[in-house]
Amino acid sequence: MAEALGRFRDEEPVVVALPRGGVPVGFEVAKALVAPLDIVLVRKLGAPFNPEYGIGAIAEGGVRFIRRAEAELIGVSDKDLDEVVARESAELERRRRLYRGDEELHPVEGRTVLLVDDGIATGGTAIAAGKALKFHGAARVVLAVPVAPPGTEERLAADFDEIVCLEQPDGFFGIGQFYVDFGQVADEEVIELLDAAREPDALSAADPPAADDPPTSERPVEIELELELRLAGDLRTPAPASGLVIFAHGSGSSRLSPRNRQVAEALNEAGFATLLFDLLTAEEELDRANVFDIGLLAERLLAVTGWVRSEADVGTLPIGYFGASTGAAAALRAAAGLGEEIRAVVSRGGRPDLAAESLEDVASPTLLIVGGADWQVLELNEQAARLLGCEHQVAIVPGATHLFEEPGALERVADLAAEWFSRYL
Question: Over 90: is that where the pLDDT of 392 sits?
Answer without folding.
Answer: yes
